[in-house]
Here is the input.
Amino acid sequence: MRDGKHRATTLDQLDRLLADYFRPGDAPPALARRITAEARRSGRGLEALEDRLGIEATPRGISLIRTGRAAGKPTTAAARHLVEQARLEIHEYLRGQRAFFRVPVDLEAVPDFQRRVLEAARQIPFGEARPYAWIAARIGHPRAVRAVGTALGRNPVPLIVPCHRVWRRDGGVGGYIFGTPVKDRLIALERITPVLEGCTSTRIVCRVGCVHGRHMRPDNRVVFASVDDARSVGYRPCKVCRPAA
Amino acid sequence: MDAERGLMLKVARGDQGAFAELAQRYAGRLLAVAGRLLGSRADAEDAVQRAFLSCYAGASGYNPRWAVSTWVYRILTNICVDELRRRTTREAHAERTTMAALAAGSANHQPPDAYLDLHRALARVPREARVLLALRYVDGLSYGELARIRGISINTVKSQLARGKTLLRDELGKRGAGHA
Here is the structure.
């Protein structure tokens, strides 16, 4: 019975079926004009944010990121190093060249409830959004939605702890420490930044932002949807950024 | 082919007429690839628009050793594959079900249900093989070009395509054969 049905679809039939299925349709008119207009508009404005950021660190990690005021000078070499690392990572992130932060944060001075809120926000994958209620449920206080909003609003290390990925359930933006237009732009930026890329000459797959990626030529980049996908076509995961972890 | 390379070099110099011609040449095929991979016309148009934007903005980085089609398809598949990744995590978060994505399916001039069996069967083919099948059948690209687009070996292209087709045949068989 099963064999009989199998015979009904031969590879020849499948070939014809696929050719029909994938036959190209017509291009929408004026597509090129729309795109060139879009290209002229594409000043994204996130770079301006970068110049205004003041960053503070302790030897354990980044402790404060704010705009509009000068940051206190790092007191130790370790802290200075962390501030430099954070600047570089934020610079790459805002240009769509980084999909994760490696620099540690120091939330020691943050009250317990807020720290749990921030830890939960860190679990939201790059490029995605979750409602405030999701965080509230996750930390075991499902009714504390408003308190979650307040805790996120006081996030000492925005961008690195991605409070911009938390939106209202009705799709509304909610507030944001750098203003809601920036929140919109960050989500839009993350929507077009890939997360995993392979190098066609080394056949190694990395997280976007890995040091290896910096040396990769643009025409050597291929994007993958998962580490398993990359493995299935002969790539191995990078040992530095460990994308499978 | 050389005419296309010339066209690309003009695009790199900022010639909008040349870009319009390039977009016109590829838009239909890119939409077919993106539409069948992503399942909805709106998502496909968005992906194609982003791909062209990237071609336009990055034209000066075009390497004339490459066929223009290889370059354009690399950019498009990079965008589509990332979109598929995002979709998987979104589905895990239960914001969208596979069936809803499938039901939205008509990317082409065909009525949505004419190829529903094939559409569902394709959804079960691993992503990398699905991408190769789309490129192969939309534009009849050679194994060598498919290999360059995805940065894999020709043998891998062959084995992925063969595996994809076997899976499709088995799936369609299970569903009582496709559309003869």
In short: Chain B touches chain A through 74 residues (CB under 8 Å).
